[in-house]
Amino acid sequence: MAPKLILLDQDGVLADFEQGVRQLWLQTFQQPFPMQQRRHFYLRQDIAPQFHQQLSQIYATKGFFAALPPLAGGIAAAKRLLAAGHDVRICTSPIQEYHYCVTEKFDWVGEHLGEDWVNRIILAKDKTWVRGDILIDDKPQITGSLLPQWQHWIYDQPYNRNETHLHRVSWTQPETWAELLI
């Protein structure tokens, strides 16, 4: 297989965003995160409106993005894809409350993947502007101002399982991405 430019989303693909929210919510408010089941990409759509401001507070908390736990198998998979000869980049979008988010995303990559990976970060609010062969992202539909040049492979999460037309990837199921290692 010819080397590919593979774009990996960060939150929900390499970093466990939901687990980070649950942990900081419990720590901050001394109660479990008020969500029974995740059905939507945006967490705020799965919790009652009276909790939206608290959720925004969690996202904007200094240290939130830097402390996100890695998703099982994600770090090893990114390194295997690079070792297989692909050009692997982390293509991530900052949130609206970006004051800590941007630097902490860089810090997270440096800590979990190594400082050499910091040079592999592409920060973009509109991922359709980014060139690549494959984008592995947990967001069910990625829209923007351009027609994407990459093929969207969806990273398996409970809230995107109704997307059956996309190639589905899970780091803990290597057969779902093994074709990239050939």
Q: Could you explain the architecture of this structure?
A:
With 182 residues, the chain is of the alpha/beta class. Helices cover 28% and strands 14% of the residues. The protein contains five helices and six strands. A six-stranded parallel beta sheet has the order 3-2-1-4-5-6. Helix 1 packs across helix 2.
How are the secondary structure elements laid out?
Blueprint: E1 5-8, H1 17-29, H2 52-60, H3 74-83, E2 87-92, H4 98-112, H5 115-118, E3 121-123, E4 134-137, E5 151-155, E6 167-169
Shape: globular
Give the strand content.
5-15%
Biggest sheet features: 6 strands, parallel
Q: How are helices and strands ordered from N to C?
A: EHHHEHHEEEE
Calculate the mean pLDDT score and round it. Answer: 96
What is the CA–CA distance across the termini? 6 Å
Q: Which class do the helix and strand fractions yield? A: alpha/beta
Task: Name the descriptors.
globular, alpha/beta, 182 residues
Question: TL;DR?
Answer:
By secondary structure, the chain is of the alpha/beta class.
